[in-house]
């Protein structure tokens, strides 16, 4: 049996691909974290759902794979893309123990892209994507990546910039980036992308250091060429100009 | 007037978001590189199109902005996402000289995500995206980014790995990555994503070094944790395991 891991985009029904909606339409049961499952329920209220809270990803994916092994048509939903910090790799790892379960990933618009469109064009050239969550990654590894990405003048997109337990992580990340990037580097934050309360702001890296991000915020840090054009963050697509 | 810069995804109509299709439906004129405009024409054969060849991006975008300034509803189409190596930043830069033109970006599924879904889940953890095209970027800058991204154990996605004039660039990039990544690092290539002739392959970094990529290929290089699970490339979402 096939199990689908489906990226549903930022949250609005409009941000989903046709492929994602088709796969969800055919699913017997839809599995996901409560918040994302609720978004899908608005489109498909009649479906069967298996939902669970945050930090129960492994258990949830295992249950999903078991249901697929039992012959049901299962779709695991993730916000944004299914692969980027999503459930796709976890489902692959778990499904490896089940001979009759085949995994199929349906890509979606990740927050770096939907948030990017909201704030301008921050990722118009080479970039690095780094999560500040140290739940599954040693903080030293995160620091090294921030350091190297800044030293090579990448534009940077940060996922999970903050949480209750990690209120100063964005500040610590900015301090590392400030070793290589100018304090006036153009940055942006995008919040509640595609949902109620959607907002964004453009600011300098120095200002970002003191910004209070929450877990629904995606953060963009420019490269040395990034500009503020009419209140939008724009990274040119090259170093030889128009 | 508003000008829309629209990411249409990998190429199949199914890979487009509802938002992208809605915006194209309302456009008076659709502007783009010949190949991508042709893909859109299949969906909207009755529209007016302004198409031009590769390397004429600046001229094409200028024409698009002028048409918007003249009061027409213009959509500039890009394959994948509009922001990632797309036309969005170029349109922002050009539109800055026109007081009555407002830019709006519509995100799409970039090749790192659609190609990623095809080969497995290669970008399940922090990653860097690097274009090997040195048309607008000094090669030294590209080398530095390859070096730093490898040193920090990022998964890496390469755009534009090759062209007629740059047939050995992927080999040179692999040699740089091999300074920090093991020769048996799990890698993948995705070709003609979402179009006729779609295919992918999983291979080691040593094998990738001798792979002949073309300009329709997207390349993925794993981090130290990336695995081959049943012929798919899977990067776990953290370093503390399931």
UniProtKB/TrEMBL annotation, chains A, B:
<keyword id="KW-0808">Transferase</keyword>
<keyword id="KW-0489">Methyltransferase</keyword>
<comment type="pathway">
    <text>Cofactor biosynthesis; adenosylcobalamin biosynthesis.</text>
</comment>
<dbReference type="GO" id="GO:0032259">
    <property type="term" value="P:methylation"/>
</dbReference>
<dbReference type="InterPro" id="IPR014776">
    <property type="entry name" value="4pyrrole_Mease_sub2"/>
</dbReference>
<protein>
    <submittedName>
        <fullName>Precorrin-3B C(17)-methyltransferase</fullName>
        <ecNumber>2.1.1.131</ecNumber>
    </submittedName>
</protein>
<dbReference type="InterPro" id="IPR014777">
    <property type="entry name" value="4pyrrole_Mease_sub1"/>
</dbReference>
<dbReference type="InterPro" id="IPR051810">
    <property type="entry name" value="Precorrin_MeTrfase"/>
</dbReference>
<keyword id="KW-0169">Cobalamin biosynthesis</keyword>
<dbReference type="GO" id="GO:0009236">
    <property type="term" value="P:cobalamin biosynthetic process"/>
</dbReference>
<dbReference type="GO" id="GO:0030789">
    <property type="term" value="F:precorrin-3B C17-methyltransferase activity"/>
</dbReference>
<dbReference type="InterPro" id="IPR000878">
    <property type="entry name" value="4pyrrol_Mease"/>
</dbReference>
<dbReference type="InterPro" id="IPR035996">
    <property type="entry name" value="4pyrrol_Methylase_sf"/>
</dbReference>
<feature type="domain" description="Tetrapyrrole methylase">
    <location>
        <begin position="2"/>
        <end position="208"/>
    </location>
</feature>
<keyword id="KW-0949">S-adenosyl-L-methionine</keyword>
<dbReference type="InterPro" id="IPR006363">
    <property type="entry name" value="Cbl_synth_CobJ/CibH_dom"/>
</dbReference>
<dbReference type="Pfam" id="PF00590">
    <property type="entry name" value="TP_methylase"/>
</dbReference>
